[in-house]
Write a structure and sequence with these properties.
This protein is of the alpha+beta class. The protein has a single domain, classed as Chitinase A, domain 3. Helices cover 17% and strands 26% of the residues. The chain contains two helices and six strands, in the order H-E-E-E-E-H-E-E. Strands 1, 2, 3, 4, 5 and 6 form a six-stranded antiparallel sheet that branches. Strand 2 and strand 3 form a beta hairpin. The chain is globular and about 40 Å long.
């Protein structure tokens, strides 16, 4: 019971940090797969994360992914119909490495990994406005809801 209260408090704390310390809109995006680059929507006070669905499949026991920390994740991205559009597993299982809440990822993905613990697996479902919005990117149609299954491998 105490673990659930602690994890809940940690998630609320991470959200509060995100709201008050979000990155500048011109933060560069570097060394990311094409599909993960150039968010269509920059975080603004009007941006709402209420529609992001976060489902923990496995709760990890390691360090927590927090704003400002560098994380390494394995992930698979699919559309609602199950069509896979990207996966770190298809690139020789090289993890995706990024700094949490530094504007390097699409806003919903960045928000969704916050609070995860190393060893955890999470399903993150993003509405179009927190993904690529009205823009078509690679094999992702415009206005697509995106589903990611993410495994947190490390936090530094």
């Amino acid at each position: 019971m105490n673990k659930f209260i602690f994890v809940g408090a940690l998630v609320i704390f991470a959200i509060a940090l995100y709201i008050f310390f979000r990155p500048a809109p011109d933060t560069p995006i570097v060394n990311l797969p094409e599909v993960m680059q150039e968010p269509t929507v920059e975080p603004t006070p009007a941006l709402s994360f209420d529609d992001v669905i976060v489902e923990d499949i496995v709760i990890g026991t390691g360090d927590v992914a927090e704003p400002g920390k560098q994380v390494a994740v394995q992930y698979k991205g699919t559309l609602l119909d199950g069509t896979e559009f990207d996966s770190s597993y298809s690139r020789d299982s090289e993890p995706l490495v990024f700094v949490v809440d530094a504007g390097q990822m699409i806003p919903g993905f960045d928000f969704g990994v916050q609070g995860m613990r190393v060893g955890g697996t999470r399903k993150i479902t993003l509405p179009p406005e927190l993904g690529y919005g009205a823009r078509e990117v690679g094999s992702i149609p415009a206005n697509s809801t995106l589903v990611f299954e993410v495994v947190l491998e490390s936090v530094e």
